[in-house]
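Input record (one chain):
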Amino acid sequence: MLFLKDTLPDASTGSSADWTRGRYLANALGHCAECHTSRGAFGQMDGAKTFLGSDLGRVVPPDITPAGLAARGWNAADLQAFFATGMSAQGSAFGEMHSVVYLSSQHLSPDDLRAMSTYLLGDAPPAPAPAPVQGDITPWETGRKVYLGVCAGCHGRVGEGRPHVAVSMQGSTTVRSADPHNLIVAMLDGIGAADFPGTERLQDMPGFAKTLSDEEVAQLANYLRVNWGGQPGDVTAATVKALR
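The corresponding structure, as predicted from the sequence alone:
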């Protein structure tokens, strides 16, 4: 009786045929808001925070509002590639989003992929933020050494990534996110090997919870965020400890 009607407002604005079709795909069929919108005291979706992300699950759903997507470098073409293949310049799908792509969105038609991307960004999409400028990494020398020791073998010495092995750190949506939660969780837990549409496959990433201290993980996270993410180095050992 309380929450029967769907009154969740749209996060984007538009009126085109693509926007209207994308609205149906994202809301009626895709249920994007179920994960990407936070909940109220009774479990209902919070209409004041549509698509602003939530704290559901170990890997948390990020902000997918037009502003949130643009801040992490997303544009319509990259979104369409991501929904179709699970991979884009911003990285690869992992956690529950991998299942969404592999079991669902890869099967959408090109027209539907375009429509859903149009809805998420709006008819007048904001310009994607440019690639972040490298900050001062001097305070994060320990993080740099950890990266070269345990990450660079797969992700590359300068974060360029390796095809069929590991994604690039340059432009990574996880590294560019203001919330370091998923970055820390990925480093602690690792990410399992994943098949993607077509013949693409990425090898597993080991977790480092047993081999790196809280301070080392914090230093590594800050090195990544400052070096490639355009974010402050504000991750602390206490932040990491809380996510173990």
